[in-house]
Specification:
Layout (H helix, E strand, L loop, with lengths): L3 H8 L27 E2 L5 E5 L4 E6 L2 E6 L13 H35 L4 H23 L4 H15 L3 H9 L1 H13 L14 H16 L16
Helix pairs in contact: 1-3, 2-4, 2-7, 5-6
């Protein structure tokens, strides 16, 4: 059984957008940025925050000054053998393919959470059903070729970002009975949607964490909001 059936149910709530890659920073004067987007730091200096570049752009004495966010440097895991190393780079390819899907799922899930807070229970069910139908019509064909490995990576990314497993999220949006059956189907496809993300315990998760940090630092992947808040006790 292909994992795309599981991921499709979850992503019926979500959209898909192209992965934005970071170009070299070419800052403009602050006057050329939308003024409503300017922020003020703790010293009273105005700046524009470029999310894709993860940098603050200041204008000081007529000169543009770029201050990059702090980078977390993570060494590559120690490989036990060539097969281990090949798997690491194999996961990197899968991560690159799944990551845009994950970004959209995370954004849409957070939007749905915010919207549901304003609705009654009856209206919530109708709202979720309508979102499901619209997104299914738009993205079903694009999700059919998702592999089992890509499904595993997606599930781990969602847990890292939300603190909830895919099972928890489906249960939250669709009810416990639906989450139970999709967990059964996920296990048949060799994907556990209940399994948490823990790079200190799981070898594959260790690889994913290393790849995330490396790709974020190099600009190949766009960090999601709150990506630095993830912590797992050893």
């Amino acid at each position: 059984m292909n994992f795309n059936k599981l991921i499709l149910l979850f992503l019926l709530f979500f959209g898909l957008f192209a992965n934005a890659q970071r170009d070299s920073i070419m800052p403009k004067p602050l006057s050329e940025y939308p003024q409503e987007l300017l922020k003020t730091d703790e010293y009273g200096n105005k700046f524009y925050y470029d999310v894709s570049q993860r940098a603050r752009i200041y204008e000081i004495n007529g000169e543009n000054v770029v201050v990059m966010d702090e980078l977390l440097l993570v060494n590559k895991p120690r490989f036990n053998n060539q097969l281990d190393q090949n798997y690491y780079y194999f996961l990197n390819k899968k991560l690159s393919r799944v990551y845009p899907l994950f970004l959209t799922a995370l954004e849409q899930y957070q939007d749905i959470q915010d919207e549901l807070k304003t609705l009654s229970k009856e209206s919530q069910r109708q709202y979720v059903n309508e979102r499901q139908k619209d997104l299914a019509n738009e993205y079903e064909l694009q999700l059919r070729d998702l592999t089992t490995t890509e499904g595993r990576v997606f599930a781990k990314l969602m847990n890292r970002a939300t603190g909830k497993t895919v099972y928890d999220i489906i249960k939250e949006l669709r009810g416990g009975w639906s989450a139970f059956w999709w967990n059964v189907k996920g296990n048949i496809a060799d994907v556990s949607i209940k399994e948490p993300y823990n790079p200190h315990v799981d070898r594959s998760d260790e690889f994913i964490e290393s790849l995330l940090q490396s790709n974020w630092n190099s600009g190949y992947l766009q960090p999601y909001p709150g990506y630095q808040s993830f912590k797992v006790k050893k």
